[in-house]
């Protein structure tokens, strides 16, 4: 339980907001600290408390308290780009100059196991059985069938880079995507010994991919010789692709899904200045909505673990949201002002309703505390649209007594008392 305190300011506001059936998630910003001011290349979550992040300066950071603080693990000065875990103990990292790291203790310590390829870098990593598959710059592909003890070079000659690791699709085939045109999709039917290139719709070039299973996959990228961004989707293991375009010109960097319907794309650039964008879908990629755009922050990666969403950012930030913690308004008529009403009924057992109004779009939270000022329940922490809300609080797991509920937004905060009688 968290002690009642001033919460982190959330840099998450909507560019344009319309009435929605699903509340947009609110991201809490955590700073890695330790003097780290560069980008976060990839993130892995073991559980709600334990998280690993790798950096573009070669550092590895671990938290065991949900991001309140991070410890720094020094391994290399080379940029680290991709990370994957086989289980709670064994994981791998790939990065600049072909560096490969391995842990067998859940990320507390790492050893260098290869490959020392100074001319290439790894951007994607995938694990299957005892295999470790790494792919990256200029068509680089390396496979190990014995957990990294030895490596097989399966590279092809390519002017572009592979992104997103190896996908395993039906009939024993494997798939890579590359920032190249016309062939952006590369498929092997013999375990990676040989590869054949295929085109995405409109010869799009790929900058990332995500696979929900062996059939349903997404590829992000741009059309050749343009800055037009595209999202491609297959539902049959890459045999056919549909595509749609996203307005704007910031490079799409990464994509991940929390479930079959809800996913996120991050875009980022540092030229001529840092820009970051977050898109999301709640209809399995049929449409994507820009829900955040901001300057002085470049976004690198996004990873979903259950209902949690983590985004790696520069300078030295991790954004986190929980899509399960959100509520929708009972009315979208715009109220005149903020208000927090007395819960009803009160006293109550075990459920009660808390009514409040929001006059404009804002990030905010509704949290329950006990007499000691300890948080016992987060009703929601999200981006609110203007309207009237009436969430219910179920206290079936709590003992009788006095509790407090606090509504806090960017322009308003108020606390009220309620009584649970069992």
Describe this structure as you would to a colleague.
The N terminus is likely disordered. By secondary structure, the protein is mainly beta. It contains no helices and 37 strands. The strands form ten sheets. It has a four-stranded antiparallel β-sheet, with no helix packed on it. A four-stranded antiparallel β-sheet has the order 2-3-4-5, with no helix packed on it. The chain has a four-stranded antiparallel β-sheet with strand order 6-7-8-9, with no helix packed on it.
Keywords:
mainly beta, 422 residues, disordered N terminus, four-stranded antiparallel sheet, globular
Proportion of β residues? over 45%
Q: How are the strands of the largest sheet arranged?
A: 1-28-27-26
What's the N-to-C terminus distance? 23 Å
The DSSP helix count reads 0
Rounded to an integer in angstroms, the radius of gyration calculated over CA atoms is 23 Å
Query: Roughly what is the average pLDDT, rounded to an integer?
Result: 89
Binned, the helix content reads: under 10%
Give start-end ranges of low-pLDDT stretches: 1-21
Rough outline: globular
| Number of β-strand runs | 37
Structural class: mainly beta
Q: Strand count, sense and closure of the main sheet?
A: 4 strands, antiparallel
């Amino acid at each position: 339980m968290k002690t009642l305190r001033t919460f982190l300011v959330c840099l998450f506001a909507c560019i344009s907001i319309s009435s929605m059936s699903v509340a947009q998630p609110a991201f809490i910003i955590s700073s890695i600290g330790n003097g780290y001011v560069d980008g976060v290349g990839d993130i892995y979550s073991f559980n709600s408390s334990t998280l690993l992040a790798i950096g573009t300066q070669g550092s590895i950071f671990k938290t065991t308290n949900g991001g309140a603080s991070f410890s720094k693990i020094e391994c290399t000065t080379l940029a680290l780009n991709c990370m994957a875990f086989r289980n709670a103990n064994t994981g791998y990292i790939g990065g600049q100059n072909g560096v490969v790291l391995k842990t067998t203790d859940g990320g507390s310590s790492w050893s260098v196991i290869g490959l020392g390829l100074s001319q290439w870098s790894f951007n994607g990593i995938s694990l299957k059985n005892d295999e470790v598959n790494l792919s990256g710059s200029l068509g680089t592909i390396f496979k190990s069938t014995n957990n990294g003890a030895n490596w097989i070079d399966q590279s092809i000659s390519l002017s572009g880079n592979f992104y997103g690791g190896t996908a395993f699709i039906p009939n024993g085939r494997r798939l890579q995507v590359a920032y190249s045109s016309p062939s952006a999709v590369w498929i092997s039917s013999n375990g990676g010994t040989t590869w054949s290139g295929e085109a995405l719709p409109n010869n799009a070039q790929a900058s990332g991919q995500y696979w929900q299973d062996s059939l349903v996959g997404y590829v992000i990228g741009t059309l050749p010789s343009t800055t037009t961004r595209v999202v491609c989707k297959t539902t049959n293991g890459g045999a056919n692709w549909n595509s749609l375009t996203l307005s704007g010109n910031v490079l799409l960097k990464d994509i991940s899904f929390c479930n079959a319907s809800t996913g996120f794309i991050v875009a980022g650039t540092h030229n001529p200045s840092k820009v970051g964008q977050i898109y999301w879908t709640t209809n399995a990629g049929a449409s994507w909505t820009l829900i955040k755009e901001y300057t002085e922050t470049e976004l690198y990666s996004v990873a979903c673990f259950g209902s949690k969403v983590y985004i790696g950012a520069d300078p030295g930030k991790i954004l986190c949201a929980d899509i399960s913690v959100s509520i929708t308004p009972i009315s979208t008529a715009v109220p005149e002002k903020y208000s927090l009403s007395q819960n009803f009924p009160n006293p109550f057992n075990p459920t009660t309703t808390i009514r409040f109004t929001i006059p404009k779009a804002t990030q905010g939270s509704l949290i329950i505390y006990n007499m000691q000022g300890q948080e016992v329940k987060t009703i929601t922490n999200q981006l609110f649209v203007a309207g009237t809300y009436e969430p219910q609080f179920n206290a079936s797991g709590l003992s009788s007594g006095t509790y407090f509920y606090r509504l806090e937004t960017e322009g308003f905060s108020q606390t009220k008392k309620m009584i649970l009688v069992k």
